[in-house]
Amino acid sequence: MSVKIGVPRGMYFYKYYPFTKAFLTELGAEVVPSPQTNKEILDMGSRYCIDDACLPVKVYHGHAHYLKDKVDHMLLPRLTSVVPREYICPKFGGLPEMVKYSVADLPHIIDVEIDLYKSKSNLIKSLYEAGKMFTKNPYRIKRAADKAVREHNLYQTSLLKGNLSGKYIDGDDIISNNSGPLIGIAAHPYLIYDSFINMKLLEKLSNRGFKFFLPEMLEKKVIEGKCEAFEKRMFWSSSKDLVGSSLYMIDNDKIDGVLMLTAFGCGIDSLSIDLIKRLEKKAYGKPFMVITLDEHTGDANFNTRLEAFLDLVDRRNKI
Ligand code: SF4
Q1: CB-based burial of residue 177 (10 Å sphere; 0-12 exposed, 13-18 middle, 19+ buried)?
Q2: Does ligand 1 lie within 6 Å of residue 238's CB atom?
Q3: Domain 4-160 adopts which CATH fold?
Q4: pTM (2 decimals)?
């Protein structure tokens, strides 16, 4: 019988799940993702995580709690850097410790570190370290790694074509071919694709006849190009993606309004948003709104703000 590896559906899940699944499956494991976030998962996350963590970290704790009795091992990698010469948000690096000390009775944790700061080739080392748990044959690990890279590339291509991550990961898709205005949504993937914590934003837009544009639909080089406007090189991957994609959306005439989602307790976003707001005011005047999500955000409050923003977009388009 194959070993079951749990993968919590939060944080890096929407970026790397196809990679992870392909790698582990090729090595003979059964990969068990947690389900979409629901009230029970969010409540568990809020209960077991430290109070002042950001919302996505709390949600992640809830997913780990959900999986803990259902799997033999749990994958909680320590992501330090996923792009050479850039760091990811420090919360990603501290996740394994945070979860281990907050959620009791966890199964064995696979907490291999991914640190590409100095070179991409460090990934190979990390994959061998993780792969050794399943086989001593380095060729088998290499085959699994190659398959994972192929799968990751296919996933990225699918996102670039405008598909949602859910289409690739779960086989569901809510994109409709609406002809209405185009809304740019600038946010981290774990806010955009978690329909429970974002109050079903994409579905709501789709049902109201709006189209949407997401950061994953942009080539990395476009984001890099936008960030070149700053004097200093940005070395936080999370804020670079957010700032670069927001500037693209604000600057692009085909996009009728920009909605930013941010998580309560996110220090990185508060700096990025401040920067974006200043640039946005100076140059454009396009409908632009920031909505902060936390575990207490209610549907009514969220809907009121969203409706106000969409009305503004509609009105501006009629002028
Ligand atoms: S970037 Fe912000 S929301 Fe994301 S993990 Fe870091 S602190 Fe939390």
Answers
A1: exposed
A2: yes
A3: Rossmann fold (3.40.50)
A4: 0.94
